[in-house]
Amino acid sequence: MQFRRIGRSDLLVSPLCLGGNVFGWSADEKASFAVLDAFAASGCNFIDTADVYSSWVPGNRGGESEAIIGAWMKARGNRARLVVTTKVGSDLGEGRKGLGAAYVAQAVEASLKRLQTDYIDLYLSHWEDPETPLEETLGAYARLIEAGKVRFIGNSNHSAATMREALAISARQGWPRFENLQTHYNLYDRAGYETELEDYCRQNEIGVTSYFSLAKGFLSGKYRSAADFTKSSARGGGMATYLDARGLAILDALDRVAKEKGASPAQVALAWLMARPGLVAPIASATSVAQVQDLVAATALVLSGEDIARLGAVSA
Ligand SMILES: NC(=O)c1ccc[n+]([C@@H]2O[C@H](COP(=O)([O-])OP(=O)(O)OC[C@H]3O[C@@H](n4cnc5c(N)ncnc54)[C@H](OP(=O)(O)O)[C@@H]3O)[C@@H](O)[C@H]2O)c1
């Protein structure tokens, strides 16, 4: 497997990142350990989580995903061979939110504790925080890197204008810069990234990771009509938005390429993202070993220029 560099950082990662928002939600600890084991056994090393996962589950408080990953790394003794991303800033309740320096300093300690590690490879601002000057957040990150608690930083869901401002501040202050943008991007949802962010990140060598890479499971092809929504109690209810003429045309093209390649639609959807210049790794989550084994096989799938053009045309 050919590893890829994130931006100008020293982080070398597998071309697939395992999403952690299912841990403590649609995958309990036992299922999560099995998914993580299968992912690591495939040779992949890149894992994504956030302090807020999976706080939306009744009874959860946030941090469940980090805690499961931390317990798993401890049990397997494999921390050093993994690249772990986590995020700060989402609302955890009781005033715990945002990107203020004092809060970031406190939040990182909580993430480190749950992850049972003394460093985070890649630490991201989860959302823009209009109430905190960028300079304050970047200064807080610079101190965390200086202290060895964080290796590199990035952001998710920031605009190109905000990243431009952030990179200018980092350059002016001599601070580490954002090396990663994590953004919503997949074969169905293209415009948000391709309009402006893609050019900006490529020009500035910011490595991109895509989330909802499978459109929450839709691009696996398991939802073809409303009757299929029961196939996932966690995700099925949200599938109606994708089931339009364009969504069905995308599934049709995925089916055709998948059949020619002896692959699955999910693998083709991920391989299409992996082939996109500037995109370091799609992030996808899995709730079972069978799913994760399906997904990691995408790292060995090479699409032809013709396949990419066909998928591109139908999803444009
Ligand atoms: N930065 C952000 O703001 C942000 C936002 C959202 C997500 N993320 C990150 O991105 C990751 C990926 O997003 P996501 O997990 O929400 O969506 P996704 O990767 O597009 O979809 C994953 C879901 O698809 C289903 N699936 C996976 N493999 C499959 C297969 N081989 N066959 C059939 N179904 C399959 C599973 O759900 P079922 O088993 O329930 O069907 C799985 O949980 C998250 O885990 C998180 O780390 C970041």
What composes the largest sheet?
A: 8 strands, parallel, barrel
Query: What portion of residues is helical?
Result: 25-40%
Beta fraction of the residues?
5-15%
Low-confidence stretches: none
What can you see in these coordinates?
The protein has helices spanning 29-41, 64-76, 101-115, 134-146, 160-173, 191-194, 197-203, 245-261, 265-274, 289-296, 305-315, and strands at residues 4-5, 12-13, 17-19, 46-48, 83-88, 120-125, 150-156, 178-184, 207-211, 279-284. The chain is of the alpha/beta class and 316 residues long. The strands form two sheets. The protein has an eight-stranded parallel barrel with strand order 3-4-5-6-7-8-9-10, surrounded by five helices. Strands 1-2 form a two-stranded antiparallel ribbon. Helix 8 (245-261) packs antiparallel against helix 11 (305-315). The longest helix has 17 residues, at 245-261. It is globular and about 50 Å long. The mean pLDDT is 97. The protein binds NADP nicotinamide-adenine-dinucleotide phosphate. The site of NADP nicotinamide-adenine-dinucleotide phosphate has 30 residues, from strand 10 and helix 10.
